[in-house]
Design brief:
Length: 147
């Protein structure tokens, strides 16, 4: 059994919008897609965690791009996922990329989580077309000494 401390979610782009794509910059530049703040009130941080889920809609513009998604906590990278995005010149092909990360043993306080994207393949182009959603759930064992 677990006790929920905090839940935050954001959805800056709710649906696919091919008319307003957001270009994904090439590394080392990146784009911050969205942020959330999660509060962990627990003093003893040995068993708490924050479960993070992200979904991003993307489209290849030219060739095949490798998109690197990262999650940062308080400015420090804690997770990364990579996805290949192909451009199809005969049709608009959109991809929905979803991934989950678990951040363990956090200290007490409010933590800022950022979801970013960057294109790590030179000579290619890709864009975010939506949707974007990012959520976090802070939990600890139900029998914890929480305050």
């Amino acid at each position: 059994m677990f006790r929920i401390f905090d839940y935050q979610a954001t959805e800056p782009i709710r649906k696919v919008n091919n008319n307003n794509p957001v270009s994904i910059p090439h590394s080392p530049k990146l784009i911050v897609l969205t942020t959330i703040r999660i509060t962990v009130p627990r003093r003893n941080a040995n068993n708490n965690s924050v479960e993070l889920i992200a979904t991003v809609g993307v489209r290849g513009v030219s060739d095949t791009s490798q998109i690197l998604f990262k999650i940062f906590r308080d400015g420090k990278e804690i997770f990364r996922a990579q996805e290949g995005i192909e451009a199809d010149p005969t049709s608009e092909v959109n991809y929905i990329v979803t991934f989950q990360a678990i951040d363990m043993n956090l200290g007490q306080g409010t933590h800022l989580y950022e979801l970013t994207a960057e294109n790590i393949t030179n000579g290619t182009e890709a864009a975010v077309v939506g949707p974007i959603s990012f959520s976090g759930l802070a939990v600890a064992p139900h029998d914890c000494d929480c305050d």
